[in-house]
Fold each of these.
Amino acid sequence: MGRLFGTNGVRGIVNEDLTIDLAVRLGKAIGTFFKGTVVIASDTRRSGGMIKGAVSSGLMASGADIIDIGMLPTPAMQHYVGSHRDMAGGVMITASHNPPQFNGIKCVGPTGRELAREVEEEIEALYDEDPGCNAWDAVGTISYDPTATEAYVDSVVEHVDAESIRNANLTAVLDCANGAAFATGPMLLSKLGVRAITLNANPQGDFPGHPSEPTEENLKDIISLMRTTKADVGIAHDGDADRTVFITDAGEYVGGEKSLSIMSKYVLSKKSGLVVTPVSSSSMVEEVVKAAGGDVMYTAVGSPVVAKAMFLNNAVFGGEDNGGMIFPEHQLCRDGAMAAAKMLECIVKDGKLSEQMKALPIYHTIRRKIKCPNELKIPLVEYLMEMNKDAKADTTDGLKLLYKDGWMLARSSGTEPIFRIYSESKDAEKAMQRANEIEIKAIEFIEFSSNANDA
Ligand code: MG
């Protein structure tokens, strides 16, 4: 049946694309592949219990013993798997920042890291074969461990300068988005001696507070609370709390490229080395990293690719401009609580976020997406490459044209029938002009190709 796993596991609308039949069968495939004890957890979505039950049934039918560690952030599950030597792998039931009708099934290997594409293909092949169920005396068992949440939070606290944070008597506004951060966010702030004003900290999988993608538009409440409470920092997570975005003490939303730059600078002030980020990240990161004496390495888009490059090149830090940060001294995956704790440390040592923001270089970045049928994605990139074959370019992921004052990136989405265009420059007009030009070319190509197919 071809590709089942997208960039972030198997995702779909519950009981339409992501059915319990699919979940049971995938559970059998995962259990057959891992052959051992498998950890399972979910975020706060309404369908979490149902999908987790179905995947669990499949896992046990294939002979896997499972440990259900409850409702918690994806990185807490990854930490549990990685810190227990005898785990074969882990499964997270989450659709991250997607709307509440979605859910997903995401696997990690014995180290807690996301699986390589080749490994997912092996699981997909097993899914296609549909492994049967074991005989009654060879099915797996289920046990429960409620300790994962606190173990993760304690581990984060051990990896920051907790004493300095405690001594600073900070106040933070924390927005859990009714998602998995409810389990770890308030506990983390309490253990770090930070006074917490919480928002949407009750787990409600329909996300009544606001949509679970932490964009500026969705975070109006925390932004206005920051202005009235005079707190030191605002912290907001996405639905499964692997990502973290920040609001300054002055109530300004800190874009992901800015928090990544500020954190890179802070990490490099302690330890020089390499920072890894995807080709879609703002050049702001590179400028700040170079000024701090570090180097940047670019990868294709997607946190597993960033994590792998960090591992292979012994990087000191890495992340994406959507609030995903990876701290290799803790674990090689996006780590929402670690990002929050490290930013508190950074504020204590380097000063208010509002001041740190002022020191950042200015770039104008335009991001657009256009509808593009999946079968036209590769031909479109090839067409744009041919058209720009004499230009200075990087083809790590799609086509990135490099200019003196900026760059333009055209790439296909890994998960949706969408083509993305990014254009960045220190000159706002140039950024806009390049985005317009490439967008027109792309739309024309898609139209002509679609018409050709109809004829
Ligand atoms: Mg997420």
Amino acid sequence: MFRTAIQRLTSSSSIAAAATAFGAATYAYTLDNPLSASAKAADDSSEMDAIKAWMKETDVKLAKLEANAVSSGVSSFMDNSKATNKIDIVLGAQWGDEGKGKLVDMLGMHYDVCARVAGGSNAGHTIVVDNVKYKFHLVPSGILHPATKCVIGNGVVVHMPQFLKELRGLKEAGVDTTGRIFISDRAHLVFDFHQAVDGAQESKLGRNKIGTTKKGIGPAYASKISRNGIRVGDLQDWEYFEERFRALVSSTMSQYPSLNVDVEEELKVYKEIASEIKAMTIDTIEYVNLQHKNGARILVEGANATMLDIDFGTYPYVTSSNPSVGSVLTGLGVSPNKLAGIYGTVKAYCTRVGEGPFPTEQLNDYGEHLGTVGAEFGTTTGRARRCGWLDIPQMQYSAKINGYTALNLTKLDVFTGLKSVFIGTKYVDADTGKPIHGMPASLRQLYKVKVIYEELPGWTEDISKCTAFEDLPPNAQAYVHRVEELIGVPIRWIGVGPGRRDIIYRDV
Ligand code: IMP
């Protein structure tokens, strides 16, 4: 029976069928089970034994997690806000890549609708199905839960070929997306020439480059703000689309004469895209508000992060949208009174890709440890991430802007083996030693702040098997308590390992 289930899980073309075999919870973490691919060739009994052991271990862990949650008075990894149908939001609290995807994946099954509200294919998360990696940049992670509907809101900029490629990848993986994903007719399109302009702008900046993902995000938002951008809904009025497209290419070419755009070929491609996406293109403002009115639970999957926000981030080393909480209102078309849980995701340390100030960066063995043990390479660009200690002034600023109701502290296990861990608690002026209040807008000032650190004792114990806060070594608990105290927001989830279920839930 067990063997049959494993075979169904790994050889079936339908992930939904696999979900039925084991239940939705098992289904979610099976996707990145490193053993699942080898299960195909699992006639070998030692391999079967390994799989059985892994399943048993994960089941025990899951049962313990649920038991902890239930004994704390909640029925799962959620707070009591799940009794209402207010909108919950998972945001990146630092410079991105905090590990939002894992929480969204885990919470996803509790929601009816999962939405993206800002950014574009500069964001990214990886899903492994049967040992095949699928990298997603635009499709919300909620798509992996068969009952969840996904929405790409009006605030997102969409590169249609990338989006359709992701849908094809999902189909190959056995995920049926039919009737489950909708794109706002007001979302703006990112064209290949936007990406070419992104690259050209970076080359022009030379040493002063932003370090963008070259996904055309800045140029596409620039078209939107200049009011010559083209929206997803325009594709359904071909004459209008063609007219706007020719005008946009012509104005872009006047600024970048060396740009090579085959207008007729592009129009052919987009004519096909127009019919392919017709059924998915809807008024998402009506849809989301109606879903909300009918009692649906909605989760917003934030992209990028607060310190990359065009208004609040380290400008100009930022992205071109508002990844902070405001984008939920402007990028989805919902009112503020519908918001409930605002969950900030923060790494136990700090990373950043691209250029720009990074006060707690560690260009030393500590930075090396964090980057190597934490496998800090970008999903979208593959670039090595810069690493440093947790930056409290940055997190206090981020909490002020977003009003986090709880934090998701990720990758605490990366500290295992360090004799000491450090927290950047204050910025002071490097020349005068005077404290700096708030986050300096001036990059010159931010580049030269001196960070005051607090040193805490590390631990050597493997924490990846811990399922309750009390299971953590006392020094790890002390770190969590100190971070909580300094930021002033409760830490509800703690990431203790790379697996999808390696998260501790605390009823705070
Ligand atoms: P853009 O969004 O491609 O224009 O890039 C602007 C800056 O934001 C660059 O430093 C990127 O590396 C950074 N960035 C954009 N999206 C992400 C993300 O999801 N994680 C981390 N950094 C990002």
